[in-house]
Specification:
46% of the residues lie in helices and 5% in strands. The chain has 5 helices and 2 strands; from the N terminus they run αββαααα. It has helices at 9-23, 44-52, 67-82, 95-103, 108-127, and strands at 25-26, 34-38. Strands 1-2 form a two-stranded parallel sheet. It is globular, with a radius of gyration of 16 Å. The chain starts with 8 loop residues before the first helix and ends in a 22-residue tail after the last helix. The relative contact order is 0.15. The mean pLDDT is 92.
């Protein structure tokens, strides 16, 4: 099932992938390109669900930007800073940046940091000798794979 709304992941894929292919980037295990420019797919919500289970951490509707979601963002940030089995790295940041991430009720800033951490994890796998950046060697070449899945 292709998802076209909220967020329009399918639309982003249909627009973005051809542009990345045209630019000649490398998709590990999927499409050879310029290995100095690597494209990886990350999914911050998947990692957040590992940490929070069913708890919601963001909402664009101001009426739904609750204290519980603020606390959930704080818990996610705690997992990023102190490490978590689902992403064994540790984020270093200033107190001001931490406040900015937790106070962004849309979750967009925190999502961006999670994506950055997932990409850093993948790069770490590459530096350790894995040419697939931590992606499984038997992944479906039509489906691809999400980093740190």
């Amino acid at each position: 099932i292709l998802k076209w709304v909220n967020p329009p992941v399918t639309f982003m894929m249909h627009v973005g992938v051809p542009l990345l292919l045209q630019a000649g980037v490398h998709f590990p295990g999927l499409h050879d390109g310029d290995t100095q420019r690597v494209a990886l797919e990350t999914y911050p919500g998947m990692w957040a669900k590992r940490v929070l289970q069913r708890e919601s951490y963001k909402n664009d509707n101001p009426a739904k930007q609750t204290q519980a979601r603020w606390l959930a963002r704080k818990n996610l940030l705690h997992a990023l800073v102190w490490g978590h089995d689902a992403l064994p790295m540790r984020l270093q940041l200033s107190s001001a940046m931490a406040d900015t991430l937790v106070d962004d009720a849309s979750g967009d800033s925190l999502d961006a940091v999670i994506c950055m951490m997932q990409a850093a994890w993948a790069h770490q796998q590459f530096l350790s000798g894995d040419p697939l950046y931590g992606l499984p060697p038997n992944m479906d070449r039509l489906e691809g794979w999400i980093v740190n899945a």
